[in-house]
Structure formats: structure tokens, C-alpha cells
Amino acid sequence: MPFLTAAVLAAFVGYAGAWYFELVEGNFALLLFLATIVTGLYWLAERLWFLPRRRAAAAVLEQNAAERNAGLTARGIVADDPKLADAKQRVLQQPWWLDWTAGLFPVILAVFVLRSFLFEPFKIPSGSMIPTLLVGDLILVNKFTYGLRLPVLNTRLTEGTPPQRGDVMVFRYPPKPTLDYIKRVVGVPGDEVAYLNKKLTINGQPVPVSRLADYFDRDAMRYFRHFEERFGERRHRLLNDDERPAFIPGAEDFPFKQNCRYSVEGVVCKVPEGHYFMMGDNRDNSLDSRYWGFVPDKNIVGRAFLIWMNFGDFGRVGKFE
Fold first, then answer.
1. FRET label pair with 108: which of 81, 83, 213, 319, CA 20 to 30 Å apart?
2. Residue 128 designated active-site
3. For the chain, what are the domain ranges?
4. 124-319 adopts what CATH topology?
5. CA distances (Å), origin 222, targets 115, 124, 214, 217, 219
6. Is 176 a catalytic residue?
């Protein structure tokens, strides 16, 4: 068992190392699931087989010591074995290969359940959601609002609440589902979304916007036009770049592309059933549904709702719209 365990642990470390050095495309959900299964099997083996055997060996050791002491006492010799407690402790001690498997199972199980069904942390890698989310923001994603899903397979278990316009949603990038993307829900099933001349219209109704003071992007070292956009009572901010054209260059082929009409003014799309139209708040610097199409329900990960840390700016911690 020690050699088998060493091989299993080496496989996990090797996979993680290859992922870190970008030699393979990693899947953390799958890795965590396998770690939970493997450590769980060791935990069961420990409870049902290895621990009872160690306890039986300790009992035999204690019985032998008692018999020896009884014999010594019968001959008038004071029996005192100070090493017995240490010997029992060594016999009962969990070996390293169980300590690194069965011993970690409760922690790994807790992380697996928390991450799979309650909350999952993400780090914002790009500026597509500026000014709402900045590069380096560490966020939490609610995994149950839109319905619980099976880990790895992402199959829906419960219905939950459907995504609403204005939600900030994490999802699996449709052209490459191993990647997680974050954007804002702009169109829900059945909506006709028009983004023409940098103005958003839903089902023929312009989405209300208010002009704000220009936004200074410290990374780009320049100002952008800054607006507040409203979906009903929900408000969020967005940016426009006057140097970028309104038309959508380089739109890919994607399922239901026939539902979209592209022109020099922008794009108009009819959102199919079971799909969502996503856009970044940094409207002219976001690779989103305008370019690669609709997000199917099966790709949904969860609703982002909280910045729990930004090591460059502690003041950003808190909820966001």
C-alpha cells in the first residue's frame, strides 16, 4: 500500500505540475472530484480495516505486557514498563500514506461540497468587466441560485431561479468549455437584443442610460466615456471607447448565428430558448456574445455577487451590481 499510495500521490502532483507549466489543459473540478473519491476510499479502508487492525495489535501488546507483569509480580518483582505507552502509541499511529490520504479526506470533502454546491472563488483575469470588476479582483460565485448542478458534468439537479437581465454570470466559454468566462446577462430566452451605434435595445425598447463623469483606467492610462445603465431597478456602470468602431469585426461561426444580423452599426440577435446573450461592461473591450454567440443553459456556472479580496485595493471588498 505505501508504494501504491506514493504512485497515486505522484500522479496528482505530476498532473498539477503539468497544468501549472501549461503542458496540459487542467480541469480543477475533475481533479477535486477524483481527490475526493480516492481519499474517501482510503478513509473507508482506514475506518473499516486498518484502524481496527492497529487497535487489535495494541490490545495484544497490552495483554502481553499485563501477562508478563503478572508473572513478575507473582515472583515478587515490582513490574513497571514505562515504554508500554510509547509502544502502544507507535502501534496506533497512522502511517504516512494514510495520513496523506484518509487524513485529508474531511478537508477535501468540505472543499468539494462548498465549491460544487455553494460558493466558488474566481480571479478576474482581464478588463472586460471594467468598471464593475477590475483585474485582480477575487470574487465569489453563488452556485445554487440558478439551480444545483452535478460537479464535472454540470447537469442540472434543481431548477433554481433563471438568470435575469443585469446578472453578472460565470459560465463555460462556449467555443472552449474548459475555460470559465464572466460577463453580464443582457438578453434572456426570447429577447431580441440590438446593439447598434453603441446603444443597447431590448425587444425594441432602449435600455436607459445616464452619462457619468469620464472614467480613468489606470492600466490603460486614459479616460473612457462612462455611463450608468439600468435594467428595471437594477443599475450598473459601463464604459465606451470612442476610438473603437460600432461594427463587430471577426464574428465567429456559432450555433444559431442565423438569429443574428450584422451591419456597420452593430448587431441584432434573437436569443433562442435555453440560451443567454452576454456582454462585458467594458463594451468596446469585451469578447462576448456579439463575437462568439449565445451561452446555453448547460454552460452556466453561477452568479457572481461579491468581491472578497483585492490585494492591490482592499477598499474594493464588498458586493457589486
1. 319
2. yes
3. 2-112, 124-319
4. Umud Fragment, subunit A (2.10.109)
5. 38, 21, 10, 6, 8
6. no
